[in-house]
User: Fold these one by one.
Assistant:
Number 1:
Amino acid sequence: MESVRTDFYLDGRWVRAAGGQPLEVHNPTTEEVIGTVPAGTAEDVDRAVAAARAAFEGWAATDPADRAAHLDRLHAALTARADDIAHTVAGELGTPLKVATRVQAGLPLTVLRSFVDLAAHPPAPQTVGNSLVVREPVGVVGAITPWNYPLHQVVAKLAPALAAGCTLVLKPSELTPLTAYLLFDAIDEAGLPPGVVNLVTGTGPVVGEALAGHPGVDLVSFTGSTATGRRITHLAADRIARVSLELGGKSANVILDDADLASAVKVGVGNAFLNSGQTCTAWTRMLVHRDRYDEALDLAAKATDGYQLGDPLDPATRLGPLVSAAQRDRVRDHITRGLADGGRLVAGGPDAPVPQRGWFVAPTVIADVDPDSALAQEEVFGPVLAVIPVDDDDHAVRVANNSRYGLAGAVWSGDEERALRVARRLRTGAVDINGAPFNPLAPFGGYKQSGVGRELGVHGLEEFCEVKAIQR
Ligand code: NAD
């Protein structure tokens, strides 16, 4: 059944969008249109920002416990929709249902819960000499989000913004906007005060640019590609608006010679292929000590065999399609170029069989990748793993840091102190040692061209705050 949405959420209610050609949403598995959403305009953004501006003072002055209660109600309304959210993400993005349930629907609920707690118990003011240092909400937030984790990336902005006392206008990705509508159904049910959160759908060049360049927006919080992040920074610079950016990555999974190789490779392959490789933190470069290199390639090929492509709703499916035909073509080009640049095909490849219908790419492992080549330097955003041999820890660190990105990474070693030493030398915002679990309270964000600022936990809350010093 097609999901036809014709409204924006403005000032606490659904408002019918003016005419104009709606945007089609596709199911990447069937290639069929599964819904439409309105294509917003700069005037729609004006109305949304005006509503957020008008609501700001009242929301900022609301007692933290009341803000926490609102977020708690939103959590309940979203929990009631978790199944619908997982199916919608499986439909518009192609994430296999099991992963969609656990990650796409489950993770945002965990994150939202953490901000219910932080809203109720915000960091206390500090005393520095004769100064009282307090945090205040930054103002109206313009949130612009991508398609690969269509609920998580919104919640990672909306929850801390609201907890801090900011109001917000969201422009979700035009490729996966249906999930955002479910969130706003939940927001409507939770009864947040009018104007505190607003939704305008549309394209990046029209709605995204209008929001990033809007004089009424105090902070542009963006997740997406580095190229768009650069454009948004330019737009915000004219009025010196705050910008926080969560951008691309090319993270290294460093496997030292004393690692538990079976775990390191299995978890590493799984990480690289999660969500069909459309994950900003994906460990897309596997750096393996030369002594264990051939063994690691065997293990990687075997692990890749287990990633059955297919319909996200089929329980046997471990890998869905890519989000769009354009993305599929881009990823295939990366594979072809990687092989032309001297990479050796270990699994998958451009000619490996894939379902006839749908925008699939076979999970692919390429060995002997030159650390300076495009495959090792550019973000592919598909199920493609580049494997690179390294001589020792110093060499591994050099190769890992040979990137304009610095978002995430991993180190595997039988000696945790040694792993920690290597982890400390990696120029990235996060490093996981020996497959340690994701921590939703830990700061999340990038060094270098992977971004500016941090999301999640206390650090994420602080992104939405100004700091004031009061001397007495
Ligand atoms: P994208 O940059 O094309 O789009 C992201 C959002 O920006 C969309 O809503 C889009 O409509 C909007 N946009 C596009 N052009 C714009 C413009 N000129 N002005 C304002 N807004 C504009 O990115 P994408 O293809 O949707 O997402 C994939 C990228 O996101 C990858 O590079 C990935 O690494 C990155 N990403 C980063 C993180 C992170 O936390 N670091 C998380 C997920 C994805």
Number 2:
Amino acid sequence: MATVNEAQVLDALRKVADPDRGSDIVTLGMISGLVVKGGNVGFSIEVDPKRGPALEPLRQAAERAVDALPGVTSVTAVLTAHRPAPTLGGAKAPGGGHDHAGHGHSHGSPAARPAAAAGPTKINVPGVGAIIAVASGKGGVGKSTTAVNLALALAANGQRVGLLDADIYGPSLPRMMGISGKPESPDGKMLTPMQNYGVKVMSMGFLVAEDTPMIWRGPMVMGAIQQMLRDVDWGQLDVLVVDMPPGTGDAQLTMAQNVPLAGAVIVSTPQDIALLDARKGLNMFRRVDVPVLGIVENMSYFCCPNCGHRSHIFSHGGARDEAEKLGVDFLGEMPLDIVIRETSDNGTPIVHAKPDSDHARLYRAMALRVWEKIKAGNRRTGPKIVID
Ligand code: ADP
């Protein structure tokens, strides 16, 4: 089978000219973050923020040029905008001096304005009341499972809910939400989100095959997220739940800075608390002034499927104590239970599949707490969360 390398990709991109600058996009130094992994190719095209919205055809032309190469199975190009690094409470600017905030193509919105002197420009998401992040200090702690069940529980409580899979290193929401296929774009500009169980869902997983390895650099993560926020017709939502990429690196920090988050829910396991990973997540949001709505302890204890006995395999109560120490709300503890795994992995999350179970009840109670905090935050901070 034909393979493709970076040199071939760059050669193909040399045939794509910037319409306004009289040369090709490689010679002009506009390509960055080129990643070739098997047949999957990703790169960013760096553009002047003012030109961002007009350059969607250029982005598409670049994708087509690479797609035509033998051995290429997927191509993802994102537009990113250079702008001065924001100074934010001493936080290091992601990307070493440049904030590749990824001004992707935005259709007529004033998205590509320069960063305000006071801090990074937040992305506009009209019609969405509050965006909340579900985050974790590391992978595999049940962050996606919690995001999905929390979203379904918010919907069950009567809110209009969207779910955005920002964990684009390993998007699992399509599978967990039992959705396959691709979102459509009736007007050729905005994508209509997919939907199941009354929740609108968008994920990179709909746009690339599940087994596609996705090695994204920080700026590309942000570009993709921006496109999923701006170019998806979310309609009117009370809450958009964002399943964050795990960890607390530059990509996560950039997201926390650029997405107008009303708050964050931190998911952790008892071991994770012991290892202080959860605290890192908490500090990250505090650094960028995003309120932490609370901590969920997942896989908190083992619930025997035969006799219902609870075994505290790992040290118990850590998250509750830690939350108290850190002055953060403790939202609840979810047991390690095979039913949670089975339902979440086969696309029928427990809040939907077993609404009368204790677990579903717990998720709904968590959702209520979170919703009340969002409403309280809205009242307190007012325009901070209102998206213009
Ligand atoms: P993350 O998003 O943190 O990487 P996932 O939500 O994908 O984690 O969960 C990792 C695995 O653990 C999945 O197979 C999921 O079904 C399972 N899982 C998550 N929470 C629980 C739980 N409370 N009990 C049993 N299995 C769980």
